[in-house]
Amino acid sequence: MDKTLRLGRTNRGSPALDRIDRKILALYQNDTRRIAESIGANVGLSAAAVQRRLKRMRADGVIRREIAVLDNAAVGMPITCIVTLSMAAFPGPSTYLDRFRRQMIEQSMVQQCYHVTGTRDFVIVVIAASMEEYGAFARAWFEANERVTRYETHVALERVKVGLSLPLNEVAKVKLTSAKS
Known about the structure:
Blueprint: H1 3-7, H2 19-28, H3 36-43, H4 47-59, E1 79-87, H5 93-106, E2 110-115, E3 122-128, H6 131-143, E4 148-155
Antiparallel strand pairs: 1-3, 1-4, 2-3
Helix pairs in contact: 2-3, 3-4
């Protein structure tokens, strides 16, 4: 058995993954309906071995969820708004930040929410059926919140790339291309 699998966890407390785990995940994350036999043929393992590794990675929390990715326009939610938001730094700001985090987690229109560094406190992706629906959401959650000092909304004109896949089989590469090519 590979040394990383025997160790079980890395020094940062996250599950250890060997080269084969990463290959399995690279294939699986883009198509969770792909059968273990097909994955095994690509990584050099039996279907049973692939299934055992997937089961372990689910138990370890490496695979957090297996979901269906829906076309937001096809289900009547064609508007994507990216919101940057600042909150006032009153005494005890962590209490207000924690409350705001919990509120955003509970909102079905919030697809993603990030607490960030820089001049803003949060970046939030909100999906809506219409601009009126988004406006009502913004009034209720941003304008009515006395801790929100500023928010700015960017409406997506085009979904150029949307995904959550991680580049597991390659080192992230920056391609430098000229504007003329």
